[in-house]
Specification:
Elements (H helix, E strand, L loop, with lengths): L3 H10 L7 E5 L4 E4 L13 H8 L5 E4 L5 H8 L4 E5 L2 H9 L4 E4 L10 E6 L10 H14 E12 L24 E8 L2 E2 L3 E4 L3 H10 L2 E8 L4 E8 L2
Parallel strand pairs: 3-4, 3-6, 4-5, 6-7
Antiparallel strand pairs: 1-2, 1-8, 7-12, 8-9, 8-10, 11-12
Helix pairs in contact: 1-4
């Protein structure tokens, strides 16, 4: 089963909400994704998401759009926005909620149009999966950006999840992998999804990789707990 999120979103959209999505990670932690949170209006969104939506300009591609909450806000405010997600269930929900432009595709397989803003919220840059794949994703973004376009993304530095010593340092396992690489699996109503990799980036690492691949990376705002909003633009 590879569309757990889509099944759950469709259930919620069509009045069949009875439980939330469960997540299991390589940190040996079990958590939940509350379904109502995925359908939140603008005023219930975190500060970083609100700032990002206010900074959108021109034609927008909402990458990993989920239920379409960000895209719908933009559409309602006059933007030409396309919601992209590889989950067919998510795209059906977006359409049912009134989103005009949708694409069901993995981002690396999508091409043929260019945008003024690429939007990746809810740690959307995590779709890179691992640090060694981040460059491929950034290079693909170049083909999707109009001249003078921008990428708006949020992410989190998950260093806080590791044990801290008396000197303020953190004990990070020496396994040759970047500490922000996490493996997840989702569960919903007795179904289990396939495991997938997700990437959490500290800002300094994002900035380093952005610079290597021809982007200027600016910190727009810090969040309340090790999270941040960043803006990437192509280096002249």
């Amino acid at each position: 089963m590879d569309d757990i999120i889509g099944i759950a979103l469709l259930d919620y959209q069509n009045g069949r909400y009875s439980e939330d999505i469960k997540t299991f990670s390589s940190f040996d932690e079990e958590d939940t994704i509350p379904m109502p949170y995925l359908f939140r209006p603008f005023m219930a969104m975190p500060k970083l998401e609100q700032i990002a939506l206010k900074k959108c300009s021109g034609k927008v591609l909402d990458i990993g759009c989920g239920s379409g909450s960000h895209s719908l806000y933009l559409q309602e405010n006059g933007f030409v926005v396309t919601g992209l997600d590889k989950s067919s269930g998510a795209i059906k929900v977006c359409q049912q909620r009134g989103l005009i432009n949708t694409v069901c595709s993995p981002i690396l397989e999508y091409s043929g149009s260019q945008f003024d803003t690429l939007l990746l919220l809810m740690n959307g840059i995590g779709i890179a999966g691992s640090l060694d794949q981040l460059g491929n994703l950034l290079n693909h973004f170049k083909s999707l950006l109009k001249p003078n376009g921008q990428i708006l993304l949020d992410s989190s530095n998950i260093i806080y999840m590791f044990e801290q010593d008396e000197d303020g340092g953190y004990w990070v396992p020496d396994n040759n992998n970047y500490y922000g690489e996490v493996v997840f699996q989702m569960g919903y109503k007795g179904l289990k999804g396939k495991s997938f990799k997700w990437l959490y980036l500290d800002f300094d690492t994002l900035q380093k990789y952005a610079n290597i691949h021809g982007f200027h990376c600016k910190l727009v705002s810090d969040g309340e707990h090790f999270d941040y909003l960043a803006k990437l633009t192509l280096t002249p």
